């Protein structure tokens, strides 16, 4: 069994782990990333097949944080950012009484929409315009929306939005946990409309670092989202060990020891002063159990839903619907529909399908239909085709089928989440040099993961100062050769 000491070990080579490692490398810190699979990227994984560009997990992102903007600037020569057509991105539909209705985006559309009755529309407008103080508790998104905008908005639009972002149930999700800035607006007496208008007025210059906003709205990368982890991996080079699964951690004198198994069964131990867990919550929980049981206990109370993503390619003539927008979502109230939603992939990014084809991304599972995960590919495609023929008038069979299951992949920030996160942060402060990053604490989006990773890297770099404690007991090259670990040049998720 080999042994090696680093300043920092990052467990997990998804976007969180890679971003943290990149920032640390840039700060001159000796860092090593352990990734259990053959390819890096985690959920961000793109495949090219028969002229289609298939996103297995996330499809697009929004750049909201300066740390993310900086990352994209640094990789600008390798990763080309492309923006979705804004009009397409804003044209969204929801299922309402078995038919697709456009989500109103203008006052005229609001007046005309069949999604709300006249009473529902009046209630929404009153909720937008009238000042009303929030009730100051950790309310569910559903309760907060009902109180402010009325039941119709909460059951339809808001419930669909929660399916779209969290594949979750708005009655269980916490407003403050999921949308802290919205919760702040809700808490204040000012009306949402007043708040939005005041943002447009010139205000005092803010002190905090502002986003330059190169990229507004929804974006992706020319080669698909997997391009970014691929580029990060290439620049991190031998700092990444793939096929290297962390199986146990323990505290040692000056930090942590990680026991790993390589793909042919050999075990190695690596030591570091700082340890960053950038793995899904369920893995973090298992690793922390023996060394930090109190953190593990709290993590166990954070649930997650499972998702199935079907990428289905069709002949253009087999879909008798204009697909004139982003796609549609299914609110909880339309419980007879087995789908969570369908994204019209090549309407958003035309190069995702050949000119004579269309690409639909069908989502199933989530908190409402956990049973979907255990269905066979054939069953899933059959269910999807029934829904698609009803709602989008799809007639022919798909020319391409790609099924991806994501067990426990989307954390649910249910009521009490803010308290749980505070508890975890408190416990972590008692154990300096242990860091948790990823999507289960403070944001599920890629932007959130990058932000939390950059923040952790900054703290670590500050703690380490300029001192380098790299004492590699074994030569890195001989180690990775002995381990049979594939180095990242060959492990780009883009294939
Ligand atoms: C289907 C789906 C669609 C999504 N859509 C969007 C979207 O459109 N936009 C958006 O912004 N976000 C989206 N998200 C959320 C976003 O993609 C994720 O939150 C984010 O990619 C998580 O990144 P991560 O690095 O924290 O975790 P992961 O991507 O899960 O990476 C964790 C890594 O750790 C590795 N690992 C696990 N166990 C071990 C171990 N024992 N030892 C070593 N390595 C280990 C894994 O192999 C993996 O590579 C979506 C998520 C899913 C699942």
Structural description of this entry:
The chain has 495 residues and is an alpha/beta fold. The strands form 4 sheets. Strands 1, 2, 10, 11, 12, 13 and 19 form a 7-stranded mixed sheet that branches. Strands 8-7-15-16-17-14-18 form a 7-stranded mixed sheet. The protein has a 3-stranded antiparallel sheet with strand order 5-9-6, with no helix packed on it. Helix 1 packs parallel to helix 17, helix 6 runs antiparallel to helix 7 and helix 13 packs antiparallel against helix 16. The protein folds into 3 domains: 238 residues, FAD/NAD(P)-binding domain, CATH 3.50.50; 85 residues, protoporphyrinogen ix oxidase, domain 3, CATH 1.10.3110; 109 residues, Polyamine Oxidase, Chain A, domain 2, CATH 3.90.660. The longest helix has 19 residues. The chain is globular, with a radius of gyration of 23 Å. It is built from 18 helices and 19 strands.
| Spatial gap, N to C terminus | 32 Å
Poorly predicted sequence stretches spanning 5 or more consecutive residues: 466-495
CATH architecture of the largest domain: 3-Layer(bba) Sandwich
How many strands, what sense, and barrel or not for the largest sheet?
7 strands, mixed
What do the pLDDT scores average to? 89
> Which structural class should the secondary elements be placed in?
alpha/beta
| Helical percentage | 25-40%
Count of the domains: 3
Beta content comes to: 15-25%
List of distinct ligands in this structure: flavin-adenine dinucleotide
Dominant shape: globular
Q: CATH superfamily membership of the largest domain, which one?
A: FAD/NAD(P)-binding domain
Indicate the radius of gyration in whole angstroms: 23 Å
Q: What is the count of DSSP helices, taking H or I runs of 4+ residues? A: 18
